[in-house]
Give the backbone structure.
Amino acid sequence: KLDAAPLSAILKAWQGLGYNRRAKLLHAAAKEVVRTYKGKMPRDAETLRTLPGIGPYTARAVAAFADNADGIFIETNIRTVITHHFFQRKGIVSDGEVLAVLERVHPKGRAREWYAALMDYGSYLKRSGVRINARAKGYTKQAAFKGSNREARGAILKALLSGPKTKAKLAPLLGREREAQLLQALAALVEEGLVERAGTRFSVAS
């Protein structure tokens, strides 16, 4: 069971899926579901939002797809559809404007079907060359992975999954010129509870 698994096993399974902090929050959420709700996932968005790592978008998306619950939320493909069809002549479009359209056109009682269709259609529009990022006020371009702190954090966790290591072993993982960045990332991982220190050795949190 997810709640009973050690964090190290979850982080190992999570490799390649992006931000490792999300794996830790998923683990914490599973523990909370077992502790507070006797292993049964809450069904409404407001209760889902009380779980670790779940914000408004995730809560409403889970409720929509798992329980067909009505609720308004935005993700990148949905934003593409609404901006492309409702704001063709407008420059910058805010998420508030997109949400207002969704409130107006959302078919009650068909959330699961509606959002699946919007996401698929938005993906199709992007493949067809539709690009609205520069017009979306709520859009933030993700920084390149190469050279980023995300790369440093991922390298540390990947190394530690094979066993505990000293700071001296970890520091040169990405080259001597990036040692300071890697050590800062190591300190952050310890502070966040993803990595533990015992004496001079570091390991993935259990």
About this structure: The radius of gyration is 21 Å.
